[in-house]
Amino acid sequence: MITSAMGIWNYWIVFILMMIGLFIVIGRKNLLKKIVGLTIFQTSVFLLYITFGKITGGTAPILTENSSTIYSNPLPHVLILTAIVVGVATTALALALVVRINSIYGSIEEDDISAHDLIDYHDQNNTLKKSTLQNSK
Amino acid sequence: MIDIFINNLPILIVTVPLMMSLFVVLVTNSHLSFLLTLATTFITFLIAILLYQEVQSYSSISYALGNWLPPLGIEYVIDHVSIIPIIIISGIGFLATLFAYKIMPSELSDSSISKTYGLWLLAISGLIGLVTTGDAFNLFVFLEISSLASVALVAMGAKQDRQALIAAYNYLIIGAVGATFYVIGVGLLYAITGTLNLADITSKLALMEDNRALIAGFGFMVVGIMIKAAVFPLHIWLPRAYAYAPSAVSILLAATATKASLYILARILFSVFLPSENIVSFTLTYIILPLSVFAMFAGTIMAIYEKDIKRLLAHSSIAQIGYITLAFSIGTKSSVAAGFIHMSNHALIKGGLFMAITSISYYIQKRVTIENLSGLGKAMPITFCCFIICSLSLAGLPLTAGFVSKLYLIKSAISSEGLWLSFMILFSSALSLIYLWKMIEALWLSPLNKQDIKIKEKPVIYTSLLLITFLNIYFGLDASLIVNSSFNASNLLLGINK
Amino acid sequence: MYKNPILRVCTKILFAPIILFGLYVQFHGDYGPGGGFQAGVIVASAFILYSIVFGLNEGQKLLPPNVNLVLLAFGAFLYGAVGFTTMLMGEPFLSYNILGENSQAGQHLGILIIEFGVGLTVCNVMIALFNSFAGYQPNQGS
């Protein structure tokens, strides 16, 4: 059983990274750390796809002159390129939002932001002067 | 030239908004960008109607991208099932754009209006591509296009209320986790079947018995789509995102974004995993059915305690999504048809309610809460009348569209599950009357503020609202269009057996 | 940072070879690892290096923001234009076979053009992202 477990060590790494990433997204209250956790989570998915594509004895899927080479499956590589681009766009959008949140609320800890939002929620008539986009520091 | 146009309709309905959004982003004049957006959504709606006519005669259109035939290539599938969300998304996109003419400049700064319209078109194009495609990974790409565009649209509301930013951030993180779960599921399915085409996955799954990878892939895909569709425990992102978005964006997203994901859920549960009946029926009976019942009650009860009207309507959206997933989870032909009927009607109802609340907040220029609403019904009779009709439709009174969907839902629930389920549905509909009556009482039976007496309603704002209310009443009186399309859809989806 | 002579000279020396390498990666996507996205990021990194060392104003003189926006949209539009051209010739969207005499030449030309469009868009998106992050002033709207 140990040898069969060691034979699939790729998948062990994939799932460990996946769980680490998911825990960081859920368990950490700092907004930037959540983005880092999301990136780790998405990276583990890329590793999963590439592991699916590897064929035993196969080399990289680039055409060579030798006609009897075995190539690994090129389709997961293409899917991962697309998924990496999507992940980059998600990270960029999340970072832009964090920059805005920091300039308006003054912190990127979720507890402080929730405290500010609770004050906003109970103060429906906008009697408190709070910073909006027009007059922030 | 015309037959080139007709042959390529399935791809045009996705690429026309996509290409036009590139132009709209570059334009700096806000009126010109509005006109371009309106023209594009109108053309998209026309293409959707043409596709509807074609589906009536051909019953399934398959369009191979790049002339690579399926299962090797990406294909776009338009059949009786996918034409319903296409019509909903393009129709509501057009009506919401029409409504947004005066609303957008009142909430956003002039320089950001054209960028918002560019994102608007990108979101509509992503949603339509999501329901059109027949390839599992292409679905993920369009899922992320529509999701990122929606997040950016929600974050545009930060000028009015700064809570929009953290709401958009939560929407982004939770949505990205959901999409990544879906990708894991697709990867596992690709590893077992070797293909990405949804119809081909079904035929390959018919040849193998249930194994662990299949169950894991199914679980990941379903949970990922449930996060995007805001089914009960995974709905946390929805109330704040819809409440603090710009008002025109709330109308568009509340009526369309979750409907597309619910259609994908129905596709995955019934069409792709058709051969593995044990897993699907286990999931439907023991997981989705109880969660839908919880959703109906949790959404309604949270809405009763809300003071902010847009958050109230967002919570009631969660309850309505619970009705749709309840209809899917019963699993018979009539209940799946009832789910599609409620999908279409809820888009009209929520669109109308959000439009009425938006016009109220446009006139009083403050955030709409229960206290701010006092007496405004006397000052704005047309808006208030449309609001009453749409809220009666939400509760399910006869002669309105909501009644038709509740009727079919309760009929199918009685015929398959027994009386207790229909009692739950009726009880939660009765509970929804509580928060609707709170709003009506504040609007009509409370005294009017002195400064609100001078409000005059402008036709350019209430035209779209009257149109949606008229559609509510029309589909309540003559629901044959929606009912027939939904029954065609469920016949196609559930196949010959059952 | 522009006062440091080593950084200044090295940036000026490296700027052109980075773009050359980016173009190499772009057009060798057919025969090796490469393609539009990777090449776009490499070319963008040259411009971003210049902006980091010499300051944001100099970087914006090199590539003005409105040219950035227009090129961004143009890259994506190029992709769609190839698709629409094949549609106007009667085949489904993005079928490259009819763009050349035989299917191999058509595929080669079609993929070359769309990868160039992708590379153009990705390069300009990265530069626009850098400009908006680096030039962010908290007291401006939007």
What's the structural blueprint in terms of helices and strands?
The complex is a heterotrimer of chains A (137), B (498) and C (142).
Chain A: H1 2-7, H2 9-27, H3 31-53, H4 75-105, H5 110-122
Helix pairs in contact in A: 2-3, 3-4
Chain B: H1 2-7, H2 9-26, H3 30-58, E1 60-64, E2 75-79, H4 83-107, H5 113-132, H6 136-155, H7 163-193, H8 198-205, H9 212-229, H10 237-244, H11 247-272, H12 277-304, H13 309-330, H14 333-364, H15 376-379, H16 381-395, H17 401-416, H18 419-445, H19 459-477, H20 480-494
Helix pairs in contact in B: 2-3, 2-5, 3-4, 3-5, 4-5, 4-11, 4-14, 4-19, 5-6, 5-11, 6-7, 6-11, 7-9, 7-10, 9-11, 10-11, 10-13, 11-13, 11-14, 12-13, 12-18, 13-14, 13-18, 14-16, 14-17, 14-19, 14-20, 16-18, 16-19, 17-18, 17-19
Chain C: H1 5-27, H2 36-54, H3 56-62, H4 65-88, H5 103-134
Write up this protein.
The complex is a heterotrimer of chains A (137), B (498) and C (142). Chain A contains five helices and no strands. Chain A has 137 residues and is mainly alpha-helical. Helices cover 67% and strands 0% of the residues of chain A. Chain B has helices at residues 2-7, 9-26, 30-58, 83-107, 113-132, 136-155, 163-193, 198-205, 212-229, 237-244, 247-272, 277-304, 309-330, 333-364, 376-379, 381-395, 401-416, 419-445, 459-477, 480-494; strands at 60-64, 75-79. Chain B has a domain at 276-498. The N and C termini of chain B lie far apart (44 Å). In chain B, strands 1-2 form a two-stranded antiparallel sheet. Chain C has 142 residues and is mainly alpha-helical. Chain C has five helices and no strands. Chain C is elongated. Chain A binds chain B through residues 18, 22, 25, 31, 34-35, 38, 41-42, 45, 48-49, 52, 75-76, 79, 82-83, 86, 89-90, 93-94, 97-98, 100-101, 104-105, 113, 117, 120, 124, 130-134, and chain B through 137, 140-141, 144, 148, 151-152, 155, 158-159, 161-163, 165-166, 168-169, 172-173, 176-177, 179-180, 183-184, 187, 190-191, 196, 307-308, 367, 369, 371.
